[in-house]
Amino acid sequence: MFYNNNATAHNHHTNNNPCIFIFRHRYDWLWKDDKESSYRKFISNNPQISDFEEQMKRFNNLEQEIDAIVPTYCIGALKLNTINLKLQLSTETRQWKVLYSNKVHQLAKEQMANLYEYMRGITIKLNVEVQSLDTLRYVVNVLKEVREKESSIEMDISPILDMYNMLEYYLPDGVIDKDEMEQRQGMAIFWRKVIEHADGVSDALIAVQGTYKKQLVWDIREFSLDIRSMRKDFEENGPLKPGIEPEIAVEKLKKFKVELDTRERKMEIYRAGEELFALRPTRFNEVIKTRKDITLVDQLYGLYVDVQASIKGWSVLMWSEVADQVAAMTELANSYEARVKKLPKKLRDWPAYAEVSGKITDLQVSQRKVEL
Prior knowledge:
372 residues, two-stranded antiparallel sheet
């Protein structure tokens, strides 16, 4: 070996080999500098592909420079053979070059794999069978995504090709395996197949869109009748009914929450369908008004349910346990009082408002007695 990590051995070696002494100051960084540390420093600056290429070019030029060293070197009457020295210098240079090229290779492979995964995913989405308005809208959105991607796909493919071209230029044959090279060459072909498939799906959808459009118009008419019926039932038998007992109102509220959730999901599907077919949007006023009323009344009955649950839980406490719980109970009762004060004025004439306010006051009075 022409160098050694041991400083003494290295100095001894160079002092007894005039040829190495001559080239040491020009090339000694190849074995003196720590490769990993130098690379980490380079990476810490978030280099671009052009920065990697600059390093590869640097090492490539160095290899050419080393290769140009004459096979024999004359010093006076001495004639020194440089073949072993050149071999070892070239080996060190290639190790540096491989270290920097590995990162570019890894990045190129990852980006290519991600692009293939995206194209395969799009193909799977395009194969979804249209069986409803919802799946029709889904496939139409996928087609829209493909059209938008078509204008920018070159920006995804070109950087990957640039990286592979750089690796191919600076690295020896065989570093990149055959399968990987075939994948690199097939990216544009794969994307063209995706486009052709999307064109076929688009043509097929045109044939069925008319049927789904007619069905949508019919479904919206039926839905409009349904939500009018729901609204009438809500006004006549729901939690807003004048004089309704709080316990009954809570159960009614639960029932209409479920019914409204179902209709809101349908409403969103129909709205999306109208947007898909560029139809004038229908105003589903009954759903919107019912959601507003339920949100309002839920503030009161939500508080009522919480207070009832707290009273039930505290009622089963042993007297010896009450003293330990009184601070938490007081804090909770005060939070209930704050919620009562924040309720809209229009709820204050309801029986549940008076009942829950009275229960909170009773709790606070009882807790003060315990504290005393």
